[in-house]
Design a protein that fits this description.
The complex is a heterodimer. Chain A is mostly helical. Chain A is built from three helices and no strands. Chain B folds into two domains: about 1-85, Up-down Bundle (Four Helix Bundle (Hemerythrin (Met), subunit A)); about 125-165. Chain B has helices at about 5-25, 30-50, 50-75, 95-110, 125-135, 140-160. In chain B, helix 1 packs antiparallel against helix 2 and helix 2 (about 30-50) runs antiparallel to helix 3 (about 50-75). Classes of the chains: A mainly alpha, B mainly alpha.
């Protein structure tokens, strides 16, 4: 622990936890669809950072196997985040074109 | 303290501060710019963890692509210099409690778990093995992600298309 930040998994997991928590806060408190989307991005980054950190420390541990699973899952998370960005921002632009604001508390037409 | 320790520590501090700015800044444009720095810190940690290809992908796709799209959507849709959070801190109470419970639970789980906590990180080049794995054991998942990406982009184009009133029943 004493100063060796790079070889301690808790540093990475702590930053990942902080990202996840700030993502939750950003999702729950923003009154803006793009702000909520940015919270989702933070949470996806937390998950991908967890994958890569566990992969790196598992690779160096005695029970080593294929040393790429975490990297590939992180890659797929990034690709899916790109898809999500495209679809979410298309929806945001569409809602803005219809309603002239993107407050998710006011878009209640589908509530039934 | 070696140089890589200093690098990891500065990435963690930068990431934590900029994530706090993303969550709490009332101006959405500044929050998006802080999101750039938090994604950059995650890319730096990928580099420190020996995932060089993933660090490059993070830089290219997130910082080069998604952030630009977010800024574009903000410019298109928002009166960006209007202050928010004018209704006080009352709406922060329940999310703050929820997130503190989640944070305390995660940190307790992290301290009590039995996985190996310290290890030497090997820095092998990972681009070639990732390419071989994407056409080898992960070929099916790779094709599946490609199909999802194609259909998602087509759906995004269909959703964001301008509204044509002369065609009827086109779903927009």
């Amino acid at each position: 622990m004493n100063g060796h930040f790079a070889s301690n998994i808790e540093m990475y997991l702590f930053l990942s936890s902080l990202f996840f928590v700030f993502g939750i806060l950003c999702m729950l408190t923003r009154k803006n669809a793009i702000g909520i989307f940015m919270g989702v991005e933070l949470m996806l980054n937390a998950a991908a950072l967890n994958f890569v950190a566990f992969q790196a420390f598992h690779r160096a541990s005695p029970l080593r196997g294929n040393w790429l699973h975490g990297h590939i899952f992180g890659l797929f998370i990034i690709i899916l985040a790109a898809i999500e960005a495209a679809v979410a921002l298309a929806i945001v632009l569409r809602v803005f074109a219809v309603r002239r604001n993107i407050d998710p508390d006011q878009a209640t037409e589908l509530r039934g | 303290m070696a140089l890589v320790d200093l690098f990891v520590l500065s990435c963690i501090v930068l990431g934590a501060l900029s994530a706090a700015v993303v969550a709490f800044h009332p101006n959405i444009l500044y929050a998006a710019i802080a999101l750039v720095f938090s994604l950059l810190s995650v890319a730096g940690l990928y580099g420190a963890l020996g995932a060089d290809f993933l660090a490059a992908v993070q830089l290219i796709i997130y910082v080069g692509g998604i952030i630009v799209v977010i800024l574009f959507a903000i410019m298109m849709s928002e009166n960006i210099y209007r202050g928010r959070f004018v209704e006080g801190f009352r709406r922060f109470i329940v999310p703050f409690i929820i997130s503190m419970v989640v944070l305390v639970g995660l940190v307790r789980l992290m301290r009590r778990a039995g996985w190996p906590k310290t290890a030497e990180i090997m820095n092998l080049p990972s681009t070639g093995p990732i390419g071989q794995a994407l056409v080898g054991p992960y070929a099916l998942v790779f094709q599946y992600v490609a199909i999802v990406l194609l259909s998602g982009l087509i759906g995004a184009v269909v959703i964001a298309r301008p509204h044509y009133t002369e065609t009827k029943g086109d779903g927009t």
